[in-house]
Amino acid sequence: MIIYHGSSHIIEKPIYGAGNRYNDYGLGFYCTEHLELAEEWAVTEEQNGYANRYSLDTEQLRICHLTLPDYTILHWLALLVDNRTFNVGTAVAKAGKEYLHDHFLPDISQYDIVIGCRADDSYFSFAKAFVNNEISLKQLSMAMYLGDLGEQVVLKSRKAFDLIEFDDAVPASFEEFYPQKKKRDDNARSRYREEVMRDDISGFYMRDIIREEVGPDDPRIR
User: Is the whole model's pTM more than 0.85, yes or no?
Assistant: First the structure.
């Protein structure tokens, strides 16, 4: 597997145990298989960066692929709300967060790599809206594909860190890639607002999932 990590600097040897505990899937080294996305992630509005390129032999690694049919968007959401911090503003949101944890949270501790959707700030706001009972499950599912963010590949275990090999680093210019990143985010937010305006009256909401005790095998969430 060839993967890229966007950063403000060159990282020849990722350090196991370093990083932010409050990322989407917890502590780990977050990468993508798409060079252009890594270049976007690498820059800020005023700072250049690098898309670090790595080779990773996955033959001996255990991989949790959250976009496969074994999982639903609620499994992804359970991981997200378990790791990222946000204020629980309503009773439904508090109950929803607890319900997702108890019924949908995957045990990823046994895996070396997790592959799944990425939630930047705009996408995390969509997820919060669902937990707060503001949008339906269908609207959340549609929102997750508005910005074409692709999947992220997250190294979780020491074994995965031992097997990753640095190839090179591609410079990324903020003048080129920040506008692309901003355009992607703006388009996602705009299309999200359009989708929410089409109130999904008959949709499946967080309150319904709690009230009807929906589980992972329920066909209504597939």
Answer: yes
